[in-house]
């Protein structure tokens, strides 16, 4: 009995710490999703059905892609506790034995030849497996795709931290007109350098600092969502019906289909759950997402849609416009802190990717420091950390005068 209690306590602790490393990016999506969906020509469709349809699209996309695909399915496809693109590739290599990388081990050969004495008949290999064994070109293409995915993770580690930090702190100019953009950039640079400097303390300790920020942020946006539903449009609950998706496309036509790319911004950060699986466990991530993150974000999207259905003129700044006046500054501070935390998840994902690349023999040897021996996957790579920081500043600081042009 004590063993089960200790295991449950361990899951709860990891679930709490995952808020600071995994769900930061996902929790800040409400800042810009509706603004992006109704950008361009979509702004001309100002009906209640369109607002309801936008929420229905976001809700079902979030439910299917984040809850069902990533949380229920992808978290189970780990490779000895590790997640990410290379984990899937390693699983394919182990079961199909078509790896082009020198990572095949003798123990894998022994396991692959093991047969249960009670099993009298062997399972014939599938046609797909036989095709992969014979077609070397396909294996080469698959390896290139895997390496491309790893490169994309590293690029996100360079681009996401400066963009998320500056986009949050840049909001100061909305209320403080005397504040110059150069001052905001200087503050953001200091925050960014400090964040990378903290990485040597280990992702475990960094995650312990950030969870309260994300928890308070999620509670805040959930409360704002409930307020907007009650105050602006209590009938928004009808938007849970997929029927409003049909009405959305019926009224918006081609522009509605083009807006689907912006709808997928609602699941920005869900891939971090799988990429950062080595730092936690599947059970802890499921507990955190299902019991807290999912409900808070759905309430926020629901409330923001209720506000937009009655105030289409405020779509470009719908999140901040929907906040009661007295709560603006506290929520703004929490939004800025949450955006800073959001960049931590991609940095940790970059460390995990480098560790997997090195294990598969496709990256020069670098020193990978395990900060906690009893939790597999908590690593720190000093060279990668400083490369990410220098690259972020090099891409960002020279462009600070035309920041938004650079982003778009």
UniProtKB/TrEMBL annotation:
Listed InterPro entries: K+_transporter, K_trans_N
GO CC, alphabetical: plasma membrane
Intracellular or extracellular location(s): Cell membrane
GO MF entries: potassium ion transmembrane transporter activity
Residues passing through the membrane, by range: 14-34, 50-68, 138-159, 210-230, 287-308, 328-354, 375-397
Domain K+ potassium transporter integral membrane: 15-397
Keywords of this entry: Membrane, Transmembrane, Transmembrane helix
Entry keyword Transmembrane: yes
Topology term for the membrane: Multi-pass membrane protein
Entries under PANTHER family matching the protein: OSMOTIC STRESS POTASSIUM TRANSPORTER, POTASSIUM TRANSPORTER 3
Family: Belongs to the HAK/KUP transporter (TC 2.A.72.3) family.
Stated name of the protein: K+ potassium transporter integral membrane domain-containing protein
């Amino acid at each position: 009995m004590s063993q089960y209690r200790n295991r449950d306590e361990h899951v709860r602790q990891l679930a709490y710490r995952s808020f600071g490393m995994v769900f930061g990016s996902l929790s800040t999506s409400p800042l810009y999703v509706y603004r992006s969906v109704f950008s361009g020509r979509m702004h001309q469709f100002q009906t209640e059905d369109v607002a309801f349809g936008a929420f229905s699209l976001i809700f079902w996309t979030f439910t299917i892609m984040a809850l069902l695909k990533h949380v229920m399915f992808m978290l189970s496809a780990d490779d000895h506790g590790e997640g990410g693109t290379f984990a899937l590739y390693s699983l394919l290599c182990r079961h199909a034995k078509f790896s082009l990388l020198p990572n095949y081990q003798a123990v894998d050969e022994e396991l692959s030849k093991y047969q249960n004495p009670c099993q009298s008949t062997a399972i014939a290999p599938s046609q797909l497996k036989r095709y992969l064994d014979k077609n070397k070109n396909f294996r080469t293409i698959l390896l290139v795709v895997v390496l491309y995915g790893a490169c994309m993770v590293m690029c996100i580690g360079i681009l996401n931290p400066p963009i998320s930090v500056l986009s949050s702190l840049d909001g100061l100019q909305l209320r403080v007109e005397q504040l110059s953009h150069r001052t905001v950039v200087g503050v953001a640079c200091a925050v960014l350098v400090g964040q990378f400097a903290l990485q040597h303390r280990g992702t475990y300790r960094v995650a312990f600092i950030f969870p309260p920020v994300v928890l308070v942020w999620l509670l805040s946006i959930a409360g704002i969502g409930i307020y907007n539903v009650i105050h602006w449009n209590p009938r928004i609950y009808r938007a849970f019906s997929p029927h409003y998706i049909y009405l959305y496309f019926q009224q918006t036509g081609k522009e509605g289909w083009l807006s689907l790319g912006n709808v997928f911004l609602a699941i920005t950060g869900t891939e971090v759950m799988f990429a950062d699986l080595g730092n936690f466990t599947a059970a802890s991530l499921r507990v955190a997402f299902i019991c807290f993150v999912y409900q808070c974000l759905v309430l926020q999207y629901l409330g923001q849609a209720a506000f937009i259905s009655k105030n289409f003129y405020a779509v470009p700044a719908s999140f901040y416009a929907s906040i009661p006046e007295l709560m603006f500054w506290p929520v703004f501070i929490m939004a800025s802190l949450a955006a800073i935390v959001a960049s931590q998840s991609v940095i940790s994902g970059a460390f995990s990717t480098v560790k997997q690349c090195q294990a598969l023999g496709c990256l020069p040897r670098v020193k990978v420091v395990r900060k906690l021996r009893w939790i597999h996957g908590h690593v720190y790579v000093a060279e990668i950390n400083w490369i990410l920081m220098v690259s972020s500043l090099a891409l960002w600081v020279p462009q600070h005068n035309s920041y938004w042009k650079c982003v778009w």
